[in-house]
Write a structure and sequence with these properties.
Length: 288
C-alpha cells in the first residue's frame, strides 16, 4: 500500500472513532462508573448505584490537569489546563451524570456553604457558571475551595482538579444558608477510619406530617459530598446513593457508601431535588 493510501485509511479510521465518541447519548453515565451498569427503577435510569466512594486530595494525586478559577459578580469562569498549557474544550468532554463538568465550591469564610454547579462552555476552553439566587442571598463572599471532576472523551477516565478562589462582594448583612427540608437522623454502620461505611440519612419536610418526595437529580436521587477540615485536610468525596428501599418513603432515607478517610472532623453536604434543588449539611466524626 502506498504511503498516501495508508495515510488516507488511518485518517478515515480516526474520523470514524471520533464520530462514534461524539455520538454517545447525552444522558450517558458509564464513564464515571465503568464497572456499574445503570439501574432502571420506576422508569428512571440511575447511575453509580451501590458504589463505594473514596476521599481524595486531587492536588496530591498528580492528575495531568490544572484548574484555574475566578469568581466575580454573580458567578465566575474556569479553565482546565493540560500539561502543555492548552485548555480542555467542549468537544473533548464526555458526559457523566448528565453533565460535562462538575464543579464543587466549598465556602470556608464569610459563611459556611457549598454548591454543586455545571459550568458551560462559552469560549474556546473557558467554562462559565452563574450562582442561583438561593446562593447569592445573604452571601457576603469570601474564600473558596474548588474541586472539579470530569471525563475526557479520549481516555474515558475520570479526572480531578483542585484550586482555591476568593469572591469579593459589596458589603452586605450576612445570613446563613437556609434549607427547605431537614435531616431527621444520620446513622453510620461504622465510624472507624479505613473501614467501609454506609451513611444513612433520613430526610423530612418541615411541614407536618413531614412528607418529602425526592426527584432525580443528575442521574441519582441525591448527591453527597464530604469535606475535611479546610486547612489540615483539604479534600473531598463525591458520593451517590445506593438503593435500599426507603428512598420513596414519606420521610425518605438515602444511603451513601464510603470508605472512611483518616480520623478527623468532616462536613457532609447533601444535594437533593424536591421540585427544586435543596442543600442540607451535617457534621461527621471519623475515629482512629
Amino acid at each position: 500500500m502506498s504511503p498516501f493510501r495508508q495515510t488516507l485509511w488511518l485518517t478515515a479510521g480516526a474520523v470514524l472513532v471520533f464520530g462514534g465518541l461524539r455520538s454517545l447519548p447525552d444522558k450517558h453515565c458509564a464513564f464515571l462508573h465503568a464497572d456499574h451498569q445503570p439501574v432502571l427503577y420506576n422508569g428512571v435510569e440511575f447511575c453509580g448505584v451501590n458504589e463505594e466512594a473514596n476521599y481524595y486530595h486531587p492536588q496530591t494525586m498528580q492528575f495531568p490537569v490544572k484548574l484555574e478559577i475566578k469568581i466575580e459578580g454573580q458567578g465566575g469562569h474556569l479553565k482546565l489546563l493540560k500539561e502543555e498549557g492548552r485548555p480542555f474544550t467542549d468537544y473533548e468532554m464526555g458526559i457523566s451524570h448528565t453533565e460535562k463538568v462538575h464543579l464543587h465550591l466549598r465556602q470556608v469564610s464569610g459563611r459556611v456553604d457549598y454548591i454543586h454547579l455545571h459550568p458551560q462552555s462559552m469560549d474556546e476552553g473557558v467554562w462559565e457558571f452563574t450562582f442561583p439566587e438561593s446562593f447569592l442571598a445573604g452571601n457576603p463572599g469570601g474564600d473558596f475551595q474548588a474541586f472539579v471532576d470530569f471525563v475526557p472523551l479520549r481516555t474515558g477516565r475520570a479526572m480531578l482538579a483542585q484550586s482555591s478562589a476568593h469572591w469579593q462582594r459589596p458589603p452586605i448583612v450576612a445570613t446563613p444558608r437556609t434549607s427547605r427540608n431537614q435531616i431527621k437522623s444520620l446513622q453510620m454502620t461504622t465510624d472507624k477510619a479505613g473501614e467501609s461505611a454506609y451513611i444513612r440519612v433520613q430526610l423530612k419536610s418541615p411541614q407536618e406530617p413531614g412528607t418529602l418526595k425526592l426527584m432525580p437529580i443528575m442521574g441519582a436521587l441525591g448527591h453527597a459530598v464530604l469535606f475535611g477540615e479546610a486547612k489540615e485536610n483539604p479534600g473531598y468525596a463525591h458520593i451517590h446513593p445506593s438503593f435500599e428501599g426507603k428512598e420513596y418513603d414519606p420521610q425518605p432515607t438515602l444511603s451513601f457508601r464510603l470508605r472512611l478517610p483518616k480520623a478527623g472532623h468532616y462536613d457532609l453536604w447533601i444535594n437533593i431535588n424536591d421540585g427544586a434543588e435543596d442543600y442540607l449539611s451535617a457534621p461527621i466524626t471519623v475515629k482512629p
